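sorry for the late reply, my laptop died twice this morning and i had to redo everyting from scratch. anyway the thing you sent over, i finally got around to it. pasting the sequence first so we're on the same page, its 179 residues, then the predicted structure underneath. double check i copied it right bc i was rushing
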Amino acid sequence: MANRFPTPDSVSQAWSGESWPAGFPTSTDPTQTGFLLEADFYKFRGRGLIQTTGRANYARLIGFVAAYTGSDPVLQRYSATWKGAAAEAIATTSSNDDWHQLFFSGTLELARAAIRLHNTASGNYLALAADDAAQLNGTGQGSVYRMGLRISGGSSYASLFQQRVMQICDSLTGAGAQA
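ok and here's the structure:
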């Protein structure tokens, strides 16, 4: 598809909007869109239990994989390959298929590490105030609301997340049951 982009300006014009450019295939068939499948927006899309997205979040995972000493054979293989290489170089040269293999290796070790790393980088939102109902149900540090906010970054989702967690808790304790 390089013939569609004769100059750098034509690339920026085609992809500068907020929607997929008209006339470009949307197939995930590599023979049609192979170069797009390796672009950051696709390669570093949401994966795992908290939908890890973006190059910066994947860079944290590169560090985890490069230093990995556990027993997952897929992570061991990538660790041996990536050890000593710069994270930016790995981010650029890793493939969409590499990340699929890492996230779905069978042990979910990378998915669990992604949660830990995101939590650490986002203010330790998993530290809930389990012994303080007012704090837990509020919006500050230690609240379910703040957990939702740190996961998604938006107050709308944080409110919805808090409501859903409360519904689950009510159903588990019977507090929401009618007499």
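Residues 133-173 form one domain.
thats about all i looked at so far, will dig more tmrw
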